[in-house]
Write a structure and sequence with these properties.
- Its EC number is 2.4.2.22.
- The protein is an alpha/beta fold.
- It has one domain: 3-Layer(aba) Sandwich (Rossmann fold).
- The protein has helices spanning about 10-25, 40-50, 100-110, and strands at about 5, 30-35, 55-65, 70-80, 90-95, 115-120, 130-135, 140.
- It is globular.
């Protein structure tokens, strides 16, 4: 189970997606982008805008039901990226590559695509071509869509 948590804000996610976009400019133009759902959808939308790419496809792979290693299931594709063919000229985008199991499945489906993600853990790094930031293997990344802002009372109210 993850022992540490890292919270990614909307601002940080947007900055990191733009950083990745900038690095990907050397490989552009792409025929299209394949977002790995669900986590890759928002980064893919930002990157598609920055790279001026209009064709955005998705591949849906299910592998987690919770946040611990025990919650990871055998990954399976539940929606294929039909428009991407074998991936030639396409860019795969995901939010995070963790164990690499999902990335392996996606690479099997799109062997000729370039795989990029925002964050990579050590076990997943070998399965991606490009990423922005490395995250420790024992860290569970909380993305903006996983959290909600809550009211926090002023400290003075807790003194009584």
């Amino acid at each position: 189970m993850a022992t540490n948590y890292a919270t990614v804000t909307w601002d940080q996610l947007h900055r990191d997606a733009r950083t990745l976009s900038s690095a990907l400019m050397a490989r552009a133009p792409f025929k299209g982008i394949v977002a790995v759902t669900r986590g890759g959808l928002i980064p893919a939308a930002i990157i598609a805008r920055e790279l001026d790419c209009r064709l955005v496809e998705s591949i849906s792979v299910i592998s987690y039901s919770g946040e611990s290693a025990e919650d990871q299931k055998e990954p399976r594709v539940v929606k294929a990226p039909v428009a991407a063919g074998d991936g030639e000229g396409f860019l795969i985008i995901d939010d995070l590559v963790d164990s690499g199991e999902t990335a392996k499945i996606v690479r099997d489906v799109l062997p000729k695509a370039h795989f990029a993600c925002l964050y990579a853990k050590p076990n997943g790094k070998p399965h991606t071509d490009q990423y922005v930031m490395e995250v420790a293997q024992d860290t569970w990344v909380l993305f903006p869509w996983d959290t909600a802002p809550l009211f926090v009372p002023p400290l003075a109210r807790n003194l009584g």
